[in-house]
Amino acid sequence: MSQTSDEGLLLALLNTTPTVEGVRVDRLADPEDARAWVREHTGGDIQEDVALLRATRDTLKALVDGEAEATALAPALDGVSYRAAIGDTGIDWELAAPAEHALAARAAVAWDALRHSAPGRVRRCGNTEECSLFLIDHSKSNSARWCSMAGCGNRMKARRHYERRKRTRSEP
Ligand SMILES: [Zn+2]
């Protein structure tokens, strides 16, 4: 199993509360599910404090919604630093975080990096009625609206088409 990139991890964490058949589920609520999720994203490390990970996720969601201050991420960053590793080609900086909140720290740092490099690009899927997922917009035009084109993108396109036809038919 491989490690997820920090940005991929941030998105995966934000998306641990999907809406499945109209019901919001929390993939981190059950300890077994949470451990499986952590395992999937660390390649085996299961020392993560799941309660802190969930709290960090909720803070990150609130930050995306503009309903929290960055200081609320402090618990995830406790004891976190960058460590210099010198190699043949120069210095590499790697995030050093306590094992109990390594994932929470990486997600928080990834959110902050995006805040600088791509402000406003982490957002909720435009299909707010049925979907509770987030997306990170990497498009040039900054116009991505759906968590996935195959899922919500097509669904919303079909709905707009249907509504347009309905309107056209009901016109006198
Ligand atoms: Zn969606």
TrEMBL record:
Please list the residue ranges annotated as the Zinc finger CGNR domain: 121-165
Q: Name one Pfam family in it.
A: ABATE
Instruction: List the protein's name.
Output: CGNR zinc finger domain-containing protein
